Amino acid sequence: MSHRLRSSAWTRALGIFALSCAPLFAVCGLAKAASPLETTKLVYAPGKIVPIPASVPHEEGDMVDKRIVPDLRWIAQHYPIYVTDGYSGPLPNGEHVGCNRCHVKGSDHYNGLAVDVVPVGGSAKCDATWALITRLAKWAEPVQNKPRAPFRWVGYDGDAGHGCGNHLHLSWNHAPAPEYTLAEWVEVFPVNFTGVKEGTRGKKAPAPKAPPGPSGGVSQSTTGGLSPNGSGD
Ligand SMILES: [Zn+2]
Question: What is the value of pTM for the model shown?
Answer without folding.
Answer: 0.71
